[in-house]
Amino acid sequence: MADTTDTDVPLPDFKPWSPESPFLYQVEFEACGEVIRSYFGMRKFSVGRDLDGLPRLFLNNKPYFHNGLLDQGYYPDGFLTPPANAAMAYDVTHVKRCVALICCASTLKWSRFFGIITAMCRAFWCGRI
User: Fold this and answer.
1) Full-prediction pTM beyond 0.70?
2) DSSP 8-state symbol, 20
């Protein structure tokens, strides 16, 4: 087992992630002489009751309408494999003009695709990651 230490990191002026305000925290870890840089967004998806008492999907404790598109990830020159990150970014850029959510049924997607979606202010649902 690795020797680990839990650390609480305060987040002054907390900014929750949403498609309308896609704030991503930048983080840097240093361990064993290596530096790891990454990012993360903080948000809460839940089920709650609206003003009429009906169950709704919530984002950050507020009712949020989930209107999405199923992304199948077809690329003519690679079938299910995008030729470059730019091809995935192109898809997300054009989809985000219409909907706030991308649904991904394919288990062939990579973490870089999910990173592109998150950075470009889209929420996503995925069957399996």
Assistant:
1) no
2) S
